[in-house]
Amino acid sequence: MSEHHHGEGHGHDHHHDNHFSDIEARVKALETVLTEKGLIDPAAIDAIVETYETKVGPRNGARVVARAWSNPEFSDWLKRDATAAIASLGFTGRQGEHMRAVFNTADTHNLVVCTLCSCYPWSVLGLPPVWYKAPPYRSRAVIDPRGVLSEFGLELPAEKKIRVWDSTAELRYLVVPERPDGTEGFNEEQLADLVTRDSMIGTGLALSPEVVR
Amino acid sequence: MNGPHDLGGQHGLGPIAPEKDEPYFHAEWEKRALGVTLCCGAFGAWTIDESRHARESLPPATYLSASYYEIWTRALEILLKRHGFVTQAELDAGRMLEKGTEPKRVLKAEMVAGVLARGGPCDRRVAPPPRFVVGERVRTKNFNPETHTRLPRYARAKTGVVEAVQGGFVFPDDNAHGWGENPQWVYTVVFEGSEIWGEAADPTLTVSIDAWESYLERV
């Protein structure tokens, strides 16, 4: 508790002020110079930030997965042409121009990484989390995926195969986790509640219905 | 290029430390950095491949100690200077000193929704048929260009199997340097863990990359 309190109090803010002072100044200088030149519209920046804070996030991907779980025709379409299937739900655009869906099975678990930068399907998962973009995940996901998964609290059976997808081109991957047991009769909305962001990257599984209840 | 960005398989970079209920942004400056970067991308002066190359060309010590939006920001400064939009003197002063290059377009607030929804598709028609077929064994080339490439180091000179022909895409190795889009077929090539990491690899592991045709040769 005391750590938490400290994190929200003076010490936290002070730490960040010091840590980020150089970069804060650089970003401020950039925005000021470009605005004075008429090259950027600060309101456009606000609109971009608002889009990714409130409109585009992992809820989009959860709806795709829930549709695939409950509709075999959609699931087939998603396997065949994920870009079109996902676009049919209205999720298109930047960093989701070319989509592939990869399905977990009883035999195989899929994990997505971009070792070269941090390619990520923004249009269905929103902006990537810090750990996805940071060197520890990018370096280890391809060489030690089980170790990586254990740091997310996910221990897979030893016989479960692991397939790592390194996003080296412009294809963006969406993992379709296995549908949890005990969800017969769930509608799409209820199913979507079980789909976490991490389960669509492969660093987690879908939640079991008991967790949500 | 063999830069600090090419991280697959490196050791010693620490624990992953996932954050519970992580926010999209950890500071206000990150929001502005994202927005400024996307606005400048809309100028149409450089490609995503050129911007990736600017990021991977940062000095390794800078790249590895910077947060992601700091990497973006530092690379953006380089791109803006390279294309004549700002000068170092202006970045130092934090204000406009001279006019500079005119962009093809300026992103206004009312354009944002449309531009983000459109994205920037980079699939292109490729006239000749694909050289490789699904199920074929292929070997990745062994090259170490100083220029941009999207073949990771860990996957060079390795033998794998073509799992899918993904279509024709802009070739980043050329496009990053203004040498044209020169689209090529892209293939998903899957490797056994042991082919990449040796005998000690997890026996259940397979790793795939998406490889442009010129990265591959017949076995």
TrEMBL record, chain A:
Keyword Metal-binding in record: yes
Key words, A-Z: Iron, Lyase, Metal-binding
Pfam assignment, any one: NHase_alpha
Major enzyme class: lyase
SUPFAM superfamilies (alphabetical): Nitrile hydratase alpha chain (SSF56209)
UniProt keyword Lipid biosynthesis present: no
Catalytic activity: an aliphatic primary amide = an aliphatic nitrile + H2O
Ranges where the Nitrile hydratase alpha/Thiocyanate hydrolase gamma domain occurs: 22-203
Entry's EC annotation: 4.2.1.84
GO molecular function, one term: nitrile hydratase activity
Superkingdom classification of source: Bacteria
Binding sites annotated in the UniProt record for Fe(3+): 114, 117-119
Family per record: Belongs to the nitrile hydratase subunit alpha family.
Protein name in the entry: nitrile hydratase
UniProt organism field: Sinorhizobium terangae
Automatic annotation (TrEMBL), chain B:
Reaction equations catalysed: an aliphatic primary amide = an aliphatic nitrile + H2O
Keyword Transport: no
Transmembrane segments: none
Residue stretches making up the Nitrile hydratase beta subunit domain: 122-217
InterPro entries, A to Z: CN_hydtase_beta-like_N (IPR049054), CN_hydtase_beta_C (IPR042262), CN_hydtase_beta_dom_C (IPR024690), Elect_transpt_acc-like_dom_sf (IPR008990), Nitrile_hydratase_bsu (IPR003168)
Assigned keywords, A-Z: Lyase
Broad EC category: lyase
Entry's EC annotation: 4.2.1.84
Family, per entry: Belongs to the nitrile hydratase subunit beta family.
NCBIfam families: nitrile_beta
Protein name: Nitrile hydratase subunit beta
Gene, per the UniProt record: nthB
